[in-house]
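[step 3/7] fold_predict: job queued, chain A
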Amino acid sequence: MNVKDLIKGLNYVKTKGNVDIEIDEITCNSKEAHKNSLFICIKGNNYDGHTFLKEIENNGCRCIISETELDSAITQIIVKDSRIAMASVSSIFYNHPEKKLKLIGIVGTNGKTSVSHIIAKILNYGNIKCGIIGTLGSYYNGNYVEPSLTTPDPINLYRILNDMVEDGIKVVAVEVSAHAVYYKKIYGINFDIGVFTNLTQDHLDFFKTMDEYGKVKKSFFDNNLCKYIVSNSDDELGREIGKKKNAVSYGIKNPADIFAMNVKYNGVGSTFILNLFDCVYNVELKMIGEINVYNVLASATACALSGMKTDDIYKAILNLSYVEGRLERVFSKNFDIYVDYAHTPDGLYKAITSLKPMAKGRLICVFGCGGNRDKSKREIMGRISGENADLTIITSDNPRYEEPMDIIFEIEKGVLSVTKNYVLIQDRKSAIEYAIEKAKDGDIILVAGKGSEKYQEILGVKSFYNDKETIGALTNKLQ
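[step 4/7] structure written:
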């Protein structure tokens, strides 16, 4: 594509040099910049793309987008905001794929992954081709793209959306993280439907306060022209978002447009009466816990607003099963083992309290907290496990650049404030092995924090590790 055509839709300050040149790639990674690349200088928390000028010059790159005029012969397009520019040129470069798809954006602390996958399962059941972009990666028509972030950077986001268009996808369920909103990754995209799940504590290392964290999430619904909004009436921020004229609410406890009644939980899932736009259904859901009732309500509402018939949605719900790494039962014999992504106080509480009524014996919780992230939640999560689990095994998660035992000791403070029924085992595999050795008939083990993650990050190195595979290896001898 010619640069002069690429920047026609870009609100730039000025250009420097010849813009009548061809490019075949957009990148913000200096190592990928070459002769026919357009390099976008992005300012991040740790790096500033403007400082990599010499490297991209040495690589032969001939064109950049920057926020300041740089001392270089390279063609420059100077803009006020490189992040907005990156989103805009990515859309243009990939021929505006977002305009050819029905997009459903899912926002919230917990439940984004489950809701996106449930939406896709329901729509695909109804022969409406739906793709997914989110924490577990991107899925469409049997294709899979490894995840990098919950919401990819605009260049990758638009590349994936374009591939989906070419592959015949009609609807895409996109997980939209608070960081993605803050960093303008979805700038310029008008979502057909915006879904809000909940607001609970997370990412305070970045956003500092819950008020600021909530404002960023709410801004998605304020600034994006969603045709419809689907909002949780049992969440305080959800009720505020639900006041918008184009909002449809869902809930269990408070009045809502779409709701579940007579909810009962059992060892294999739950049963409830679903009122979906005044169509009433008796649901037997093969997914565990209250959180999954909420996830199904949000998903069913979004699918109905997408144009799917309520009877077909109901049939699809009856065929739903767990989402990978989300309250997934990975072993069942004399005792059961579940893995869950719960890495927030609310997520851990809901995972434990969903499983505990099913336990004929004890609930054993194995978990840790990530390093270089919100430290304030560690003691809180320790107390939650101490109060609700019968035995807590505190271990390592992704310590990153922190000393693992320092994180474990912070969690211990919370557990110790309510109980002495806990142990500390730094090595995650050893912690799970200990839980299995101590498990008795009727017990349930919850291994929380990583879900389906396939790595453990220590000192900047991501080594292969997966809870499910670890549990499989440890329980082989018990089969």
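[step 5/7] annotate
The mean pLDDT is 96.
The radius of gyration is 24 Å.
exit 0
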